From TrEMBL:
<dbReference type="InterPro" id="IPR036661">
    <property type="entry name" value="Luciferase-like_sf"/>
</dbReference>
<protein>
    <recommendedName>
        <fullName>Luciferase-like monooxygenase</fullName>
    </recommendedName>
</protein>
<dbReference type="GO" id="GO:0016705">
    <property type="term" value="F:oxidoreductase activity, acting on paired donors, with incorporation or reduction of molecular oxygen"/>
</dbReference>
<dbReference type="Pfam" id="PF00296">
    <property type="entry name" value="Bac_luciferase"/>
</dbReference>
<dbReference type="InterPro" id="IPR011251">
    <property type="entry name" value="Luciferase-like_dom"/>
</dbReference>
<feature type="domain" description="Luciferase-like">
    <location>
        <begin position="11"/>
        <end position="309"/>
    </location>
</feature>
<dbReference type="GO" id="GO:0005829">
    <property type="term" value="C:cytosol"/>
</dbReference>
<dbReference type="InterPro" id="IPR050766">
    <property type="entry name" value="Bact_Lucif_Oxidored"/>
</dbReference>
<dbReference type="InterPro" id="IPR019949">
    <property type="entry name" value="CmoO-like"/>
</dbReference>
<comment type="similarity">
    <text>To bacterial alkanal monooxygenase alpha and beta chains.</text>
</comment>
């Protein structure tokens, strides 16, 4: 697309508190704090956790708790949810939780909202109980949250304390065109899950931009794309590290989920041609390579999509390699922000 581009392309982190083989959720949380503290130093804008349930390799089932942990261990980086799966929660409870976080860490908390359960149907039933078959209206629930956060709600019979009167930015998250329409109609920033659901990415962000209605929260469209990033000194080393990511996604494709495995020298003996095709389709927006390769591919991606912000998620087995990958990616994004023109 041809458009005048900002010289300030923001870059952020999505964390699933991924549990590696031989590790525990508790160790994953400490590693997350390491990553967040480094990200803050490297100029990353925000650090989000995604709500998932009943997934052996994903420990981010309780984003508000992890958000408090990371915000308490950092000073300036924004921390939030990417996202809270709203059908799993009463809007009042979400308002109180994030009102508490925003009271503890003013000006640093984001509330990203999704409309999916973040799990399988059996687990969703365990979460919702008798509310499983209740009608869920995603836009209506967002409006309820906005009402709880508003100063005007001070005279209502039901109030969010804390939460009322606080500035807590709400984002709409999605992996389909439906969410794009919601974000556009409500005048809210839009974050797309292109790191695992790339199929409708371009269509969704075009729908969002074409139908965007300015609001008191946002005057013009704002798009964030989440992508997979595995960066290393060389393309060859990055490709080796990325075999952990590919094995993880193969578990999603086959239904045989596992803890994040160590990298391997070749995937040839691990997947068949159909599994490879399915995994690589899901990983259409994966940036794997040395700094120059990632810079060239990210530059092309930014020109093609015109996104305002890139959120990187990095499933890398070795903690030191993961930290280094985020360091390299931060440097690439800084250089692109300086050099990118329309």
């Amino acid at each position: 697309m041809s458009t005048e581009r900002s010289l300030d392309i923001k870059y952020s982190v999505l964390d699933l508190a991924t549990v590696t083989q031989g590790s525990t959720p508790g160790q994953s949380f400490k590693k997350s704090l390491d990553v967040a503290q480094q990200a803050e130093k490297l100029g990353y804008t925000r650090y989000w956790f995604a709500e998932h349930h009943n997934m052996i390799s994903v420990a981010s089932s309780a984003p508000p708790i992890l958000i408090g942990y990371i915000a308490g261990g950092t000073k300036t980086i924004r921390v939030g949810s990417g996202g809270v799966m709203l059908p799993n929660h009463a809007p009042l409870i979400v308002a109180e939780q994030f009102g508490t976080l925003a009271s503890l860490y003013p000006g640093r908390i984001d509330l990203g909202l999704g409309r999916a359960p973040g799990t399988d149907q059996t687990t969703a039933y365990a979460i919702r109980g008798e509310n499983f078959n209740a009608a869920h209206n995603f836009p209506r629930d967002i409006v309820k949250l906005q009402t709880f956060f508003s100063e005007e709600n001070a005279t209502a019979k039901v109030r969010a304390i804390p939460g009322e009167g606080l500035d807590i930015p709400i984002w709409v998250l999605g992996s389909s065109t439906d969410s794009a329409k919601v974000a556009a109609a409500m005048g809210l920033p839009y974050a797309f899950a292109s790191h695992f659901a790339p199929t409708y990415f371009m269509e969704a962000i075009n729908i969002y931009r074409d139908n965007f209605q300015p609001s008191e929260y946002l005057q013009s469209p704002y798009v964030m794309a989440c992508v997979n990033v595995v960066a290393a000194d060389t393309d060859k080393e990055a490709e080796r590290l990325a075999t952990s990511l590919k094995q993880l996604f193969m578990g999603i494709v086959t239904g045989k989920r596992q803890l994040l495995p160590p990298p391997v020298s070749s995937m040839d003996d691990i997947w068949n041609v159909f599994e490879e095709e399915a995994v690589m389709q899901m990983l259409a927006y994966a940036f794997v390579g040395g700094p120059e390769k990632i810079k060239a591919e990210m530059n092309a991606f930014l020109e093609q999509t015109g996104v305002d912000e890139v959120m990187a998620t990095s499933h890398i087995f070795e903690h030191s390699s993961r930290l280094y990958s985020y360091k390299l990616f931060g440097e690439v994004m800084k250089s692109l922000s300086r050099s990118l023109v329309g």
